[in-house]
Design brief:
50 residues; mainly alpha; 2 helices; 0% strand; rod-shaped
Length: 50
């Protein structure tokens, strides 16, 4: 069994970190995209009722 070089361990850790960040940012972007249009509607409804 060969010894795993330090840089390959670091690269795998870095790759997993980047993957987690990208998935999180995609989820956040979807959340913002789907929840943002609802806010102006509520504001408009409040203005209409006032």
């Amino acid at each position: 069994m060969k010894k795993v070089p330090f840089w390959s361990k670091g690269m795998s850790v870095l790759a997993s970190l980047v993957l987690m960040v990208s998935v999180f940012s995609v989820k956040t972007a979807c959340f913002m995209f789907f929840h943002q249009p609802k806010v102006p509607d509520k504001l408009r409804q409040k203005r209409v009722t006032l």
